[in-house]
């Protein structure tokens, strides 16, 4: 079986997908899974930038340091590197579908499709709101991360 490699994708790669990456790295480490993990944005607005300070503080509440993460834009080449690509919302899923090379083998889905009872739901964008929104994002990405870890453990 191909080793899994997981990419989380949102718009800016400074709020939702870095938190999804951090939560998944954390849950995978707890489970003893060694999985190539990254995140990216469909937009280039924040390439090279650290995550939003509210996202950094949210992860830090769980002793997870994401201040060294840097924004990057997703590209068609990611479909060859990653076996699993999860989009934060429908707009980003649509953009990924448009750049995906024909015949790519990656599993492309919404992140919350991983969470029982939440298939088809978007991960809410906390960018315009208060810091509490980032706490809700953390809860959602942690639920998705735990579900994905369970799935990957089963395939091991
Ligand atoms: P993200 O949040 O996609 O979760 O990283 C956003 C970050 C930046 C912008 C919008 C959403 N922006 O418009 O710059």
Task: Give descriptors for this structure.
alpha/beta; Rossmann fold; four-stranded parallel beta sheet; 13% strand; globular; binds 4-nitrophenyl phosphate
Describe the structure.
It is a single chain. With 156 residues, the chain is of the alpha/beta class. The protein has one domain: Rossmann fold, CATH 3.40.50. It is built from five helices and four strands; from the N terminus they run E-H-E-H-H-E-H-E-H. Strands 2-1-3-4 form a four-stranded parallel sheet, sandwiched between helices. Strand 3, helix 4 and strand 4 form a beta-alpha-beta unit. It is globular, with a radius of gyration of 14 Å. Bound molecules: 4-nitrophenyl phosphate (4NP). 4-nitrophenyl phosphate (4NP) is lined by residues 10-16, 45, 125, 127.
What is the class in the CATH system? Alpha Beta
Strand content: 5-15%
What's the β-strand tally? 4
Low-pLDDT regions: none
Q: Specify the structural class.
A: alpha/beta
In the CATH hierarchy, the third-tier topology is known as Rossmann fold
Overall shape: globular
The termini sit apart by 9 Å
Per CATH, the superfamily is Response regulator
Q: Total domains, how many?
A: 1
Based on CA atoms alone, the radius of gyration comes out at 14 Å
Bound molecules: 4-nitrophenyl phosphate
Helical region count? 5
CATH architecture: 3-Layer(aba) Sandwich
Largest sheet: 4 strands, parallel
Order of helices and strands: EHEHHEHEH
Give the mean pLDDT.
97
- In what order do the strands lie side by side in the largest sheet? 2-1-3-4
Helix share of residues?
25-40%
């Amino acid at each position: 079986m191909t080793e899994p490699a997981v990419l989380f994708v949102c718009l800016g790669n400074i709020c939702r997908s870095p938190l999804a990456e951090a939560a998944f790295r954390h849950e995978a480490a707890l489970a003893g899974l060694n999985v190539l993990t990254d995140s990216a944005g469909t937009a280039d607005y924040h390439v090279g930038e650290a995550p939003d300070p509210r996202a950094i503080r949210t992860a830090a509440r769980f002793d997870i340091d994401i201040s060294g993460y840097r924004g990057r834009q997703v590209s068609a080449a990611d479909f060859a590197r990653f076996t699993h690509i999860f989009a934060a919302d429908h707009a980003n899923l649509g953009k990924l579908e448009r750049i995906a090379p024909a015949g790519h083998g990656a599993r492309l889905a919404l992140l919350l499709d991983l969470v029982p009872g939440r298939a088809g739901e978007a991960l809410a964008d906390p960018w315009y709101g208060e810091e509490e929104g980032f706490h809700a994002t953390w809860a959602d990405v942690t639920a998705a991360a735990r579900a994905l870890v369970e799935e990957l453990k089963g395939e091991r």
